[in-house]
Write a structure and sequence with these properties.
By secondary structure, this protein is of the alpha/beta class. The protein has nine helices and 38 strands. The radius of gyration is 25 Å and the shape is globular. The protein starts with 6 loop residues before the first strand and ends with a strand.
């Protein structure tokens, strides 16, 4: 069965929800009992997908007006439906290429808007778009970046770059290497800003470009976070009031400063300071005060460079850097309590100390070789949840096709999509999208690898899916094993962790439903999410797969959704339940399909 063929769905059942609420539709079937129930659905759906639907912002506050714009011809009789977690909340007729919708008052909720037409009991899905209604962006963070601020960034270029990030619902932006010096980030002083200056790599930075980025991002509902190390100083540090007593040293006796050695064409090596030193904390908080007075940044993205081994302060005492991170974060929050904080845990170094401050707004992990397997993604996310008592979300900074990053080329679409599918399914998100390019390297201005048009289209679908089903993907729930049996001897299904030549399940129980993710590693040539050389193959799509699940709980409804089919629109499935076994046929699995059992 191909992607554009019809799939079974009954829309009256969409009035049932995954939060356990009841529908008022008198045609809803009774809750099945385990002595034998069969539910057959008759209405068909097919994909047309000839409309490009956009919203005017990346995210919305409850009750805010959402403005939609469509590229393409909207046919007579088209309707738009708004759904959350597979439940229809509103339906309206549309005509023309623009319309509005008042977002519901319920906070922290993801919606899918789907435009459809109906003919002879067959629905055609013409286009979809996700909508995030959240009063605080850090509840469901989708983090992007900007990294170049020279004169090539005209207003038109900035508008175009941010329009794409908004279409992908990116709601927070990291301003990478925007600063003049690590210990003196502002170009000039708050009373005398430089119109133009150079960054650490001697690249041009135009002050008005930074302002324009922030302005446009705020118009789109995004937040702007300025980047800086928690412990960086350049070689001229003494000229700006930084003291040698604040630095880190490789040996006792303060004779060998710990530093990052950079290219000789750059301004300076980066000398490392002691993040726990209270005088350094006060000094940098003063510099941040200058930044906030000069730019409308919403917070501080704090960076580190990982485990430095044993390092010493000026007096010769060994420094516990993770403990210093904790102290530094606390000091920054005390100085600017209204500003947001995020700190990088490089290869999880200091992750628990960062989370346990209670002062960061989500957890950010830059992943390296020690965390390069698909199964490591869940390990990191679970650890973060434990460190934060399940309060904070996880964002992965994870660089795809890394071995290709030194020369011009394109990203390998299957590698990117399989990694995003895994990250999103287990409840994380991925820092990967920025000012005109996708990340392939820890130096964010590296734009050697480009997205193909196919990847761009797929990325939009994946981020629509991440938003539309955010409550199922990233909401509260309990991880549980779900043993699914394949009715096709050629398709092996295993419980997490991922295995090659197999489909892997990851499952969570939530109020009123169980959510099961199927991830397709059958053609994977490795179990590394990094796809270092960009040669992960395209998975073979599986269609019409008979599945059965042992369950003692009666099920009312079974539906599926995937970013790889129908642009993420939900598909209702026929099923039978008897003697503790639930049976149904899965329409399609390419990279990732989500199955929902509602009770």
């Amino acid at each position: 069965m191909k992607r554009n063929l019809t799939f079974a769905i009954i829309l009256s059942l969409l009035a049932a929800s995954c939060d356990g609420s009841e529908s008022n539709n008198p045609q809803d079937p009774a809750i099945p009992t385990d002595n034998g129930t069969q539910v057959t659905v008759t209405t068909q759906r097919k994909a047309i997908l000839n409309l490009d639907i956009r919203t005017d912002k990346a995210c919305y506050k409850p009750g805010e007006t959402v403005k939609f714009t469509v590229t393409g011809n909207v046919p007579n009789g088209a309707t738009v439906r708004y759904l959350t977690a597979g439940k229809i909340v509103e339906t309206a007729a549309i005509s023309g290429t623009t319309w509005t919708w008042k977002a519901p008052s319920t906070d922290f909720t993801g919606y899918l808007a789907e435009v459809i037409t109906t003919d002879d009991n067959v629905e055609s899905v013409l286009g979809t778009v996700g909508i995030d209604v959240s009063s605080d962006w850090t509840r469901f963070p989708r983090y992007g970046f900007v990294a170049t601020y020279d004169s090539s960034k005209t207003d038109a270029v900035i508008d175009e770059e941010m329009a794409f990030l908004s279409r992908c619902h990116i709601n927070g932006i990291q301003f990478y290497d925007w600063h003049y010096k690590h210990h003196w980030p502002l170009g000039g002083t708050r009373n005398s800003l430089l119109d133009q200056y150079t960054d650490i790599a001697n690249r041009s930075v135009v002050t008005s470009v930074i302002r324009r980025y922030i302005e446009v991002q705020h118009q789109l509902g995004m937040k702007a976070m300025f980047y800086n190390l928690c412990y960086g100083a350049l070689s001229d540090y003494a000229d700006d009031g930084v003291k040698p007593q604040w630095l880190l040293y490789k040996q006792p006796g303060h004779g060998d400063i710990d530093q990052l050695v950079l290219s000789s064409s750059w301004k300076s090596n980066i000398l490392l300071t002691n993040p726990a030193n209270t005088e350094w904390q006060q000094y940098l908080a003063d510099r941040n005060e200058d930044v906030y007075a000069s730019f409308d940044f919403d917070g501080y993205h704090i960076d580190q460079v990982g485990d430095r081994g044993t390092v010493y302060d000026y007096s010769g005492q060994a420094v516990n850097l993770p403990r210093g991170f904790n102290s530094f974060i606390t000091a920054m929050k005390q100085r600017h309590p209204q500003k947001r904080l995020v700190m990088n845990a490089v290869a999880s170094y200091g992750a628990s100390q960062i989370a346990q401050t209670g002062q960061v707004d989500f957890l950010y992990n830059e992943l390296w070789d020690s965390e390069s397997r698909f199964e490591d993604l869940l390990t990191v996310r679970q650890a973060n949840s434990a460190y934060s008592n399940n309060k904070l979300q996880t964002v992965f900074a994870a660089y795809m096709n890394y071995n290709k990053s030194s020369q011009k080329g394109t990203f390998n679409t299957p590698g990117v999509l399989l990694t995003d599918a895994t990250m999103f399914a287990i409840g994380g998100s991925h820092l990967e999208l920025g000012d005109g390019h996708m990340l392939c390297h820890e130096y964010f201005p590296n734009s050697n690898l480009a997205m193909s048009s196919e990847l761009q289209q797929s990325i939009v679908r994946y981020y629509d899916f991440l938003v539309a089903y955010e409550n199922l993907l990233r909401g509260d729930g309990e991880e549980t094993a779900c043993n699914i049996t394949s009715g096709n001897s050629g398709v092996n299904i295993n419980l997490w962790p991922p295995q090659q030549r197999s489909v892997t399940t990851y499952s969570r129980k939530m109020t009123g439903c169980q959510v099961i993710h199927l991830l397709n590693y059958r053609q994977a040539n490795s179990l590394s999410w990094r796809d270092m050389d960009g040669n992960m193959p395209v998975p073979q799509e599986i269609t019409d797969l008979p599945l059965s699940v042992k369950t003692t709980s009666p099920v009312r409804r079974v539906w599926v959704a995937t970013p790889d089919m129908l642009a993420g629109a939900p598909v209702e499935l026929s099923f039978s339940q008897k003697d503790g076994v639930l049976s149904f046929t899965l329409p399609s699995l390419k990279y990732w399909t989500m199955i929902v059992f509602e009770s």
